[in-house]
């Protein structure tokens, strides 16, 4: 692998840049607590493993070569984010709002993190464009190099997201009591916004 130090520095800079994955983790952490944020981070990490495997075996080229495939996956991912947001927007006011909102099961939180990441074709295309720049083709084992680079990128991103989850979970105390429904609706708007952004941003 060429310029590993440069790759690690670029990876850290990119992972520290706020994006849909980080915003997803922040929203989960602030509304449902530390465990949900960490599990969301692990779900996103799993999605990145899928993207790494896809890129390493060369299948991500399909999304770059076939616009229809890219568009289909992009809209499926956008639709899923909007679905998650709408579910939060329809929280009804009632006497029970003085109690904390029941968090989603961690299994569901993890699954949603995986799906949200996997159904974002921009992640696969980013890996396809970014990782090969640091591959030493003369050394052979290109697929293994791509897998190693993708893993390093994923480890860095997961560490950043977990730290973000720990920091954002401190805000969970503001999401309890009578304001809980409004906070849930606000997070719903975040998810809908992410879906619209994914659908419209070329």
Q: Would you mind describing this structure in some detail?
A:
With 202 residues, this protein is mainly alpha-helical. Helices cover 73% and strands 0% of the residues. The chain is built from nine helices and no strands. The chain has helices at 4-16, 20-32, 34-56, 61-65, 67-89, 106-118, 121-130, 142-168, 180-200. The longest helix is centred in the C-terminal third of the chain and has 27 residues, at 142-168. It is globular, with a radius of gyration of 18 Å.
Question: Secondary structure elements and their pairing?
Answer:
Layout: H1 4-16, H2 20-32, H3 34-56, H4 61-65, H5 67-89, H6 106-118, H7 121-130, H8 142-168, H9 180-200
Helix pairs in contact: 1-8, 2-3, 2-8, 2-9, 3-6, 3-7, 3-8, 5-9
Q: Give the overall shape.
A: globular
Q: SSE order in H/E notation? A: HHHHHHHHH
Arithmetic mean pLDDT: 80
Provide a count of the helices: 9
How much of the sequence is in beta strands?
Answer: under 5%
* Total DSSP E strands: 0
What's the N-to-C terminus distance? 31 Å
The biggest sheet, with number of strands, parallel, antiparallel or mixed sense and barrel status, is: none
- Any low-confidence stretches, pLDDT <50, length ≥5? 93-101
Number of domains: 1
Give the helix/strand class.
Answer: mainly alpha
Q: What Rg do the Cα atoms give?
A: 18 Å
Secondary structure: helix percent: over 70%
Which features would summarize this protein structure in a list?
mainly alpha; globular; 73% helix; single chain; 202 residues
Task: Give a brief outline of the structure.
By secondary structure, the chain is mainly α. Helices cover 73% and strands 0% of the residues. The protein contains nine helices and no strands.
């Amino acid at each position: 692998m060429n310029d590993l130090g440069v790759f690690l520095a670029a990876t850290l800079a990119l992972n520290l840049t706020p994006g849909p994955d980080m915003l997803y983790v922040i929203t989960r952490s602030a509304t449902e607590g530390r465990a949900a944020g960490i599990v969301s981070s692990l779900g996103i990490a799993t999605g990145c493993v899928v993207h790494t495997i896809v890129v390493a075996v060369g299948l991500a080229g399909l999304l770059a070569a076939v616009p229809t495939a890219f568009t289909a996956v992009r809209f499926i991912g956008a639709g899923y984010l909007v679905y998650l947001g709408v579910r939060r927007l329809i929280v009804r006011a009632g006497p029970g709002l003085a109690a904390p909102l029941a968090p989603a099961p961690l299994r569901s939180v993890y699954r949603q993190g995986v799906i949200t990441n996997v159904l974002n074709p921009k992640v696969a295309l980013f890996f396809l464009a970014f990782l090969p720049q640091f591959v030493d083709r003369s050394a052979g084992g290109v697929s293994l190099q791509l897998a190693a680079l993708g893993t390093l990128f994923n480890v860095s991103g997961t560490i950043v997201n977990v730290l973000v989850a720990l920091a954002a979970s401190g805000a969970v105390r503001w999401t309890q009591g009578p304001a809980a429904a409004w906070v849930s609706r606000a997070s719903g708007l975040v998810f809908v916004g992410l879906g619209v952004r994914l659908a419209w941003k070329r």
